[in-house]
Automatic annotation (TrEMBL):
A Pfam family that the UniProt record links to this protein: GMC_oxred_C
Entry similarity comment: Belongs to the GMC oxidoreductase family.
Catalytic-site annotation from UniProt: 539, 582
Chain residues that bind FAD: 99-102, 240
Protein name per its UniProtKB record: GMC oxidoreductase
UniProt source species: Fistulina hepatica ATCC 64428
UniProt keywords, alphabetically: FAD, Flavoprotein, Glycoprotein, Oxidoreductase, Signal
Domain of life, per lineage: Eukaryota
Molecular function in Gene Ontology: flavin adenine dinucleotide binding; oxidoreductase activity, acting on CH-OH group of donors
Keyword Signal on entry: yes
Cofactors demanded by this protein: FAD
Length: 602
């Protein structure tokens, strides 16, 4: 039930309060409300009928828009990396309402390593089981299999979960040649990227509802179908500003939260747990505003420290670089209103035999291990450098995490880079050219950043310093990824060849002219170029890490904040080390897992 009156919301009785309705929050709130009374507080609005949310091919259109928190990072003078935008969804559904819909998973070892780091029952078997509980996967038709050139087996997917996952019905010109082109470059085809084997080129599935080709994000998956459930009460457009506690012996008990609605402040109480699912940026902010964090951070803003935990540290992201070309793509819907209107009308018809160009998201992805990315010799050198770095960290609280990352670097089943095409997000309005983006991204960054409050005013945004490229290992890997994208642009495969970097490609008056210069003068400019054009792949993790206490941990394996009895964090911020995959499917699986053990505990 959605309520807009804060007094009505605040005076009801709740067993659980969930803060945030993103990939994790909406799922856990909905699942717990099957047995308990759950109150949910979301900063953004409830939206049902908005094309930029519902139409898969409109990806990217709400970045720096109405449903985005519109965060930016701070520039880093040491590395020379400028401030970049950091989109995060502020809407019922959170970032799942504006993300790029790639639904995939990492390698088995990337999940097993969570258990090795001290978290019993956090491994591939458990997390893939719960991811399957979250999804209803529809296999592509024989015709689409040929179009996408992948032949997935349904045995690795779930078949009765709330989130509809399928292959977009529109197979673009690029998607048709992608697998072929990468195989030509020596990368193996991966027909089953949900199987625990992530390396290789594939056409990824997306959370697109197959019958009408709409985005099936966390609100339609977990909320709209049970909107009338009396035990599930959601208040939108309300900002949680802190968690309230009382002490019991050495432990803190969360009694509820404070939130702001329309400029007024309200308190709401809880009988069991407060669950923070505000995402990697806002979860850290809420914990710090509540007195949980590092003393110097809290002291600076006059906040009494209740618990000393490394909140906001260990921030890791997948960062990316891209180049752009002139080629007919989904970008044409941005530049040609008539074409866009026609295609939108076609999308509304949802005729499976005549798919609209809007019935697509981002299928064309490939994951490379270290050797594929760098070549054998450079890979060995990189491992030696990483070994030296890790040895130098033996006094760090994160030493075990660094060692785990070294293990992942050495393992050929683990992706260090992702290469992917994105259409529909980079129309060149100056030269009136449709483009396509080809991205090189880093999956296991050696750089670590942080998110911290910079005021005790909850409406002041926290400071985000991702520290991209602080490690030379990251510079080397990303530079190799960029070189790979240039090779892809020059393959002989149909439209990939048309999209190769030619001197007459568009961009003289935009930032892309520099990218063209890069292609012509690769060796001299690549390092400078990657420092100037780096961006986020939107996957921040780690700011409330699930690790042992004293070893970087903020939450324990039951996702309870150390030193509290009943404050949990269930979202992307609990992952202590990154996975080589887009994280949404994993985080929804984490929420399913958490809902199961929380229900068991009571
Ligand atoms: C542009 C973009 C593209 C992406 N593409 C992909 C992709 O293709 N595939 C993929 O797997 N992943 C993708 N991601 C990442 C993925 O969406 C996130 O990792 C995932 O949504 C994180 O889930 P979460 O529950 O931790 O946080 P979120 O989904 O961000 O949800 C957090 C929620 O908490 C709310 N909130 C925050 N603070 C407060 C507060 N103080 N009070 C009340 N409510 C609050 C927010 O408004 C939001 O609704 C993308 C992300 C973005 C932004």
């Amino acid at each position: 039930v959605t309520v807009n009156d804060p007094i009505t919301f605040a005076t009801q009785d709740y067993d659980y309060i969930v803060v945030g309705t993103g990939c994790a929050g909406m799922a856990i709130a909905s699942l717990l409300s099957e047995n308990f009374r759950v109150g949910v507080i979301e900063a953004g609005p409830v939206v049902t009928d908005v094309d930029i949310v519902n139409v898969p091919g409109m990806i990217g259109r709400d970045e720096v828009g109405t449903y985005d928190w519109n965060y930016t990072t701070v520039a880093n003078n040491d590395t020379g990396v400028p401030s970049v935008t950091w989109p995060r969804g502020k809407i019922l559904g959170g970032s799942s309402a504006l993300n790029y819909l790639v639904w995939n998973a990492g390698a088995e070892i990337e999940y097993d390593i969570l258990e090795q780091l001290g978290n019993p029952d956090w491994n591939w078997d458990t997390l893939s089981y719960y991811r399957k509980q979250a999804e209803t996967w529809t296999e592509p038709s024989a015709y689409d299999e040929q179009g996408y050139n992948v032949y997935p087996s349904s045995q690795y997917a779930g078949h009765s979960g709330p989130t509809q996952v399928s292959f977009g019905r529109y197979v673009s010109a690029i998607a048709r040649v992608w697998v072929d082109a990468m195989e030509y470059l020596g990368i193996n085809r991966n027909n089953n990227p949900l199987s625990g084997t992530s390396i290789g080129v594939t056409s990824a599935s997306s959370n697109i509802r197959p019958n009408n080709q709409t985005r099936h994000y966390s609100a339609p998956a977990y909320y709209f179908p049970v909107e009338n459930r009396e035990t599930l009460t959601v208040i939108p457009e309300s900002l949680v500003t802190r968690v309230n506690f009382q002490s019991q012996g050495d432990e803190l008990i969360a009694t509820g939260v404070t939130f702001m609605n329309n400029g007024q402040v309200y308190n709401v109480t809880v009988s069991k747990d407060v669950i923070i699912s505000a995402g990697s940026v806002n979860t850290a902010q809420i914990l710090e505003l509540s007195g949980i964090g590092e003393k110097d951070v809290l002291d600076a803003y006059g906040i009494e420290q209740l618990l000393d935990l490394p909140v906001g540290e260990n921030l890791q992201d997948h960062c990316f670089l891209y180049k752009a070309e002139g080629i007919v793509t989904l970008d044409d819907t941005l530049g040609n209103a008539t074409f866009s209107d026609e295609q939108l009308a076609l999308w509304q018809e949802a005729d499976p035999n005549n798919p609209s160009i809007f019935a697509m998201a981002v299928p064309s992805v490939a994951y490379l291990n270290l050797e594929q990315l760098l070549g054998t010799d450079a890979a060995q050198q990189s491992i030696s450098q990483a070994e030296q770095f890790v040895a130098s960290q033996n006094n760090s609280v994160y030493y075990d995490v660094w060692q785990a990352q070294l293990q992942l670097l050495r393992d050929s089943s683990v992706a260090q880079a992702e290469l992917l095409f994105i259409e529909g997000t980079s129309y060149d309005y100056v030269n009136h050219q449709a483009r396509v983006r080809l991205l090189a991204t880093l999956q296991h960054s050696w750089s670590r950043g942080y998110v911290h409050i910079q005021s005790n005013d909850p409406t002041v945004y926290p400071l985000i310093q991702p520290n991209y490229l602080a490690s030379p290992l990251d510079v080397q890997a990303l530079a190799a990824g960029v070189e790979y994208t240039l090779a892809i642009g020059k393959t002989v495969h149909g439209c990939l060849r048309r999209s190769s970097l030619m001197p007459n490609a568009p961009g003289n008056t935009s930032q892309y002219s520099d990218i063209l210069a890069l292609d012509q003068n690769l060796t001299t400019t690549i390092d400078d170029w990657i420092h100037s054009y780096i961006g986020t792949e939107y996957h921040p993790i780690g700011t409330a890490s699930m690790l042992p206490q004293g070893k970087g941990g903020v939450v324990d394996p039951r996702l309870i904040v150390y030193g509290t009895k009943n404050l949990r964090v269930v979202d992307m911020s609990i992952l202590p080390i990154h996975i080589g995959a887009h994280p949404m499917a994993t985080i929804v699986g984490i929420a399913q897992h958490a809902a199961a053990f929380i229900k068991e505990g009571y």
